[in-house]
């Protein structure tokens, strides 16, 4: 929970007290999770809706509770439903029209009706993309395992045969190429533009895809910054894994020092180091002569990358460029007080806001995605 400020955390959970115990229940859910819930309601008969709600919710007390433990908290679940109905007139309106005595059934059907309202094209698109990228991610994991095992043999002095070297090189190429084969023409031009706009919106809120998140996570744009934070939160609980991913491809010394500052709550120092790495990455990927810096470097990166028509890389690129444009926004002679971390303000000692964990996580994710995109374009 430490990756969010107290105010943001308050917004993304419902706090319920029952029998002198406090329970925290997350309020926002990804589009995919809502569609999975809708599918279960549509397909199955004789549903235990209370159990379905228990499986759907993420509930914490001193620890994250299992669905079986949540199922026993009848009073907590009913209070949660009541509070949500009070907060959301839209959900309450649908809830009141459902003809059932079962409050759990009424609540689940009402949130599915309201929260996952979208046309059939978007639902089909989500399912299509999720399946396509799931298949690729599974195969990519296999190729990564092959690479890892062969590399370990080499690192301890065990020679790798010429044949195995060929396998190693082949799997490296194949792991990257698979993403390139998910071509843009899987989407119509109009739908692709809508999808890219949504990925760009996530970037405006400061978020790029975490390592463990599906590419389809950003298909539906968040309505608010707090909703974006809440949805992304489930993928960034362990900052260690993000540092590890970044360390694989960039200056290890910078990432090690940034992580040291992060662990010791020196978030401003951490952010400065991460921004310097982002600056360096944008400069290094340019041609040798007349290198640009700052927002001009972002523009050069955009020209270099967006010619790639592969869907996976295109969506990541649109998102990261949108994110970079916010972070590298012109200071305009420092006339305005920025509402979020800006490279030009903090680099020149003009950022008066407190730098928090979340700021550093956002910068780490930019580094991770920049590496992903640049690696793919080098192959």
Task: Give a short summary of the structure.
The chain has 379 residues and is mainly α. It is 64% helix and 4% strand.
Which regions have little confidence, pLDDT < 50, spanning 5+ residues?
Answer: 1-10, 134-140, 170-183
Strand content: under 5%
Shape: elongated
Over all CA atoms, what is the radius of gyration?
23 Å
Strand elements, count: 3
Describe the structure in your own words:
The chain has 379 residues and is mainly α. The chain has three domains: 6-115, no CATH class; 120-182; 201-378, no CATH class. It has helices spanning 6-12, 31-43, 49-56, 67-71, 74-87, 89-97, 103-115, 120-155, 162-180, 189-204, 225-233, 239-247, 252-263, 267-284, 295-305, 311-327, 343-347, 357-378, and strands at 13-18, 21-26, 59-60. It has a three-stranded antiparallel β-sheet with strand order 1-2-3. Strand 1 and strand 2 form a beta hairpin. Helix 1 (6-12) crosses helix 11 and helix 16 packs across helix 18 (357-378). The longest helix is centred in the middle third of the chain and has 36 residues, at 120-155. The two termini are 38 Å apart.
Protein topology:
Layout (H helix, E strand, L loop, with lengths): L5 H7 E6 L2 E6 L4 H13 L5 H8 L2 E2 L6 H5 L2 H14 L1 H9 L5 H13 L4 H36 L6 H19 L8 H16 L20 H9 L5 H9 L4 H12 L3 H18 L10 H11 L5 H17 L15 H5 L9 H22 L1
Antiparallel strand pairs: 1-2, 2-3
Helix pairs in contact: 1-11, 2-7, 5-6, 6-7, 8-9, 10-16, 12-13, 12-18, 13-14, 14-18, 15-16, 16-18
